[in-house]
Design goal:
alpha/beta, Rossmann fold, TATA-Binding Protein, 2 domains, 14 strands, globular
Length: 342
C-alpha cells in the first residue's frame, strides 16, 4: 500500500477523504492522445494517485509541442522520443508508485477494443472526431464512462459521457463533420485553454472514480473574449441513436459505410485515404484555410497542399485524399489530421 501521507491534502477534502483515495489507488484510466489535454490530465491523475494509467499516442515530441504540452522538454525533442515514452519518464519521477503504461499506437478499428476495454474511465485527449466516435463505441459496448475534451484557438469544451445514463457522443454529434473542422496546426491554440480543459477532464475523472456526482453539462469556455456557456445534455438522448440505443457500433465495424480506409499505394510512396460514405469537399474554403501554412494549387476537381518540400496532400472533391511523400500509414494519418482537420 502506498504511503497515504503524500495524498494528505487531497484526503482532507471532504469530497474524497481516505475512502475516496483508496478507490483512486485501485482505479485504472486510459488516456487516448498524449498531447496538450492528455499531458495535463495525466499529470493531475498521477499526482492524485490513480493506480494504473495507460497512455496511448502515435506521435513523437516536436518543438512546437512545448508551448502547451506540459510533460515535455527540449531534450525529448532532441532525442526524438515518442510522446508516451517521454510522458512516462516524467510521470515516473513525479509518483513512482503509480503504474504508467506507455503504448505507442494509433487507436483504430483493429486495436481499440484491446487497448481500451477493462478500464474504469477513458479520457479523450485526441484531436480528431473519428477517434472520438471509436472511443464512444468501445465505451458503450463495455459500459465504460469517458470524458470528452477539445481545445483550439482560445476555446475549449468538455463533457462527461456515461453509457446508459447520459446521451452518448453520437447522440450529441450524430453526423461525422465533413472536413473535420479547425485544428491547432491551422488556426493555433493558447496553452491556458488546454490547461483548463485538461484540468476539468482530470477532476471529472476523479469524481467518476470516487463515486461523486459529475457535471451534467457540455461546458464551453473562451478565454480570449471571456465567456462561459453550460448546456445541460441530459435531455439530449436520441431515442433512435444507432450506438447507445440500437448498439450498432459502426466505428468498430470494418464494413460500415462510416469507416475511413487507409492504404499504401505500392511503389508510389503515397498513402490513400478515402471514405466509404462519399463526402463533398469545399475546396475553395479548404484552400483559403491552408494557404498560410504552405503552397496551395488546384482546380475545380482537386486541391494540392504542400506544407514542405517532401510532402504534398491532394484532396479530391469527393473527399478522397492522397498523401504523397510517405508510405507510412500512421504518418500519413497524422499529416491528414494535422492539416486537413480530422
Amino acid at each position: 500500500m502506498d504511503d497515504l501521507g503524500r495524498y494528505s491534502r487531497q484526503m482532507l477534502f471532504s469530497g474524497i477523504g481516505k475512502e475516496g483515495q483508496l478507490k483512486l489507488l485501485k482505479s485504472k484510466v486510459a488516456i487516448v492522445g498524449v498531447g496538450a489535454l492528455g499531458t495535463i490530465a495525466a499529470n493531475h491523475l498521477v499526482r492524485s494517485g490513480v493506480g494504473y494509467i495507460r497512455l496511448i499516442d502515435r506521435d513523437v515530441v516536436d518543438l512546437s509541442n512545448l508551448q502547451r504540452q506540459s510533460l515535455f522538454n527540449e531534450e525529448d525533442v532532441n532525442l526524438n522520443l515518442p510522446k508516451v515514452i517521454a510522458a512516462q519518464k516524467r510521470l515516473n519521477t513525479i509518483n513512482s508508485t503509480v503504474t504508467v503504461d506507455a503504448v505507442i499506437a494509433d487507436v483504430n478499428v483493429d486495436n481499440a477494443e484491446d487497448l481500451l476495454s477493462g478500464f474504469d474511465c477513458l479520457i479523450d485527449g485526441t484531436d480528431n472526431f473519428m477517434t472520438r466516435y471509436l472511443i464512444n463505441d468501445v465505451a458503450i459496448k463495455y459500459g465504460i464512462p469517458w470524458i470528452h475534451g477539445a481545445a483550439v484557438s482560445s476555446r475549449g469544451m468538455y463533457a462527461v459521457i456515461k453509457p446508459g445514463i447520459t446521451p452518448c457522443y453520437r447522440c450529441l454529434f450524430p453526423h461525422v463533420p465533413i472536413g473535420r473542422g479547425e485544428t491547432c496546426d491551422t488556426i493555433g491554440v493558447l496553452s491556458p485553454i488546454t490547461d483548463i480543459i485538461g484540468s476539468f477532464q482530470a477532476i471529472e475523472a476523479i469524481k467518476l472514480l470516487t463515486g461523486a456526482a459529475t457535471s451534467p453539462n457540455l461546458e464551453q469556455i473562451d478565454i480570449w473574449d471571456p465567456s462561459l456557456f453550460s448546456m445541460n445534455i441530459m435531455d439530449g438522448k436520441n431515442p433512435h441513436c444507432p450506438a447507445c440505443v440500437n448498439r450498432q457500433f459502426d466505428f468498430l465495424n470494418r464494413s460500415s459505410s462510416l469507416q475511413e480506409s487507409y492504404s499504401s499505394l505500392c511503389g508510389r510512396d503515397t498513402v490513400q485515404i478515402y471514405f466509404r460514405e462519399k463526402q463533398e469537399r469545399d475546396l475553395l474554403k479548404l484552400g483559403e484555410r491552408l494557404k498560410m501554412h504552405g503552397k496551395v494549387t488546384g482546380n475545380q476537381f482537386l486541391l494540392r497542399f504542400s506544407p514542405d518540400k517532401e510532402t504534398s496532400i491532394v484532396v479530391f472533391k469527393d473527399g478522397r485524399v492522397l498523401v504523397h511523400g510517405t508510405n507510412d500509414i500512421v504518418k500519413a494519418k497524422s499529416m491528414y489530421s494535422r492539416y486537413i482537420g480530422n
